[in-house]
Amino acid sequence: MLFRSVLLTGGIGLFKLDTQWLAVKEAAIPALIGIAVLISTQTRYPLIKTLLYNPKIMHVDRIRLKLDERDNAELFEARLLKATYLLGSTFFFSAVMNYVLAKWIVTSPTGSAEFNEQLGQMTLLSYPMIAIPSMLMMLAIFYYLWRTIHGLTGLALEEILHLPEK
Fold first, then answer.
1. d(CA 70, CA 65)
2. Which pairs with CB-CB distance under 8 Å and at least 24 residues apart come from 65-73?
3. CA 136, CA 77: separation in Å to the nearest integer?
4. CA-to-CA distance for 33 and 2, rounded, in angstroms?
5. Rounded to the nearest 5 degrees, what angle is found at the Cα of 108, between the Cα atoms of 105 and 110?
6. CA–CA separation, 35 vs 43, rounded Å?
7. pLDDT of residue 2
8. What are the residues whose beta carbons fall under 8 Å from the beta carbon of 109, sequence distance 6 or more?
9. pLDDT for res 17
10. pTM
């Protein structure tokens, strides 16, 4: 995916396309990922369930047993769905911010030395303006999942996760 992004950016500069296309490209990639996350909610394998709530990471059987004992399985599924929507929203945040940043910073004609400089500046600013907030949002989603599982099952973190042996 990164290689394609670099090729697209290089193509925009090489063919001297309007900088609008750079902004669209910067927004399109996270937007497509966000759409894929939302589409995953309509399948048997929502992204959160596939990535986190799986037997390689969590004691799914133990969690399911506790959820059933407390009659919380349906509420848990609803919260997993909510977490998937929240995850999708982080990608849409990234898409909007990428677009705004590209429009704000990259104003020089494509293919020029100034264009390349502005691309570098945009990349530098994308970390504090996009990557760090997105990471914090994802950490908040993970915390939400942990609180959900703990609250609905009563299990401690050590009972939920497959932790390495000491």
1. 9
2. 66/152, 66/153, 66/154, 66/155, 67/152, 67/153, 70/152, 70/153, 70/154, 72/152, 72/153
3. 24
4. 13
5. 110
6. 13
7. 65
8. 16, 19, 115
9. 74
10. 0.87
